[in-house]
Amino acid sequence: MLEDRLDTVRAWVREARHIAVLTGAGVSAESGVPTFRDAQTGYWAQFRAEDMATEAGFRSHPERVWNWYQHRRQLMDGVQPNAGHRALAQFQAAHPGRLTLITQNVDGLHQRVGSTGVLCLHGDLFADRWLDAPRDCCQLGEAVAGSPPTCRHCGNQVRPGVVWFGEMLPLAVFEAAERATQDCELMLVVGTAGAVYPAAGLAHLARSAGARVVVLNPNPSELDGTADAVLRGTSASLLPGLLAG
Ligand code: APR
């Protein structure tokens, strides 16, 4: 059964002039990066998202939240991209302009393995920015070290450059993702629970714009019902075979 569906989706990949790929934390799971919603190992099984991934959570416990992001940054030192990341980058290199990669991930693994034009909907784990609108005195290079670092003049705090719950996605990036979605003939939805909007809404947009939608996930996701085909498996095991050739 899976083999039959794989052959069908391989044919869809070959036919599609433009493919959009929406990735989530599951793509990095086989590299050893925890996901968010895995019942045992996911970050949201250990922490409340309201505490660790909202502006209010940062303002009430800046040290705790800053240190958690520092921990996640340090974790990435020992992490390598996996066969799923590589297959996407190799397809882009072999077929310039045919595949747009849209990711909810902030870990930089797609870029590390050579993917280009990656549309990072949820920001960058390694970027810093000011919590409050920066004044002239706020210079990231001159922030006083601390957890979090601060402006030596006004005390403004440095925060990670990720998109927290309740925040706007970077507008230009999201618009580019919407355009790629509307233009695509095939969307692969890989390693995401499909629980967070507006990112998950791109799969619905692709479907309503007439594209085929394929979910790749070892577990049920909230986007399975939107898909033309669901491939039950991991990204590192499925993507190389789907995108080869
Ligand atoms: N290959 C593919 N998918 C996998 C794998 C794997 N090896 N391992 C786990 N998965 C799937 C899980 O079954 C789950 O459906 O990846 C998905 C991960 O889901 P989440 O942890 O919810 O991650 P994601 O969908 O990326 O979360 C979206 O939520 O907390 C926020 O900002 C955060 O960007 C994140 C957003």
UniProtKB/TrEMBL annotation:
Binding, substrate: Y69, R72
Tree of life domain: Bacteria
GO CC, any one term: cytoplasm
MF terms in GO: histone deacetylase activity, NAD-dependent; NAD+ binding; protein-malonyllysine demalonylase activity; protein-succinyllysine desuccinylase activity
Entry-linked SUPFAM superfamilies: DHS-like NAD/FAD-binding domain
Assigned keywords, A-Z: Cytoplasm, Hydrolase, NAD, Transferase
EC number per UniProt: 2.3.1.286
EC class: transferase
Annotated residues for binding of NAD(+): Q104, N105, V106, D107, N217, P218, N219, S235
Entry annotated with the keyword Nuclease: no
Domain notes: 2 residues (Tyr-69 and Arg-72) present in a large hydrophobic pocket are probably involved in substrate specificity. They are important for desuccinylation activity, but dispensable for deacetylation activity.
Full protein name: NAD-dependent protein deacylase
Organism: Acidovorax soli
Gene from which the chain derives: cobB
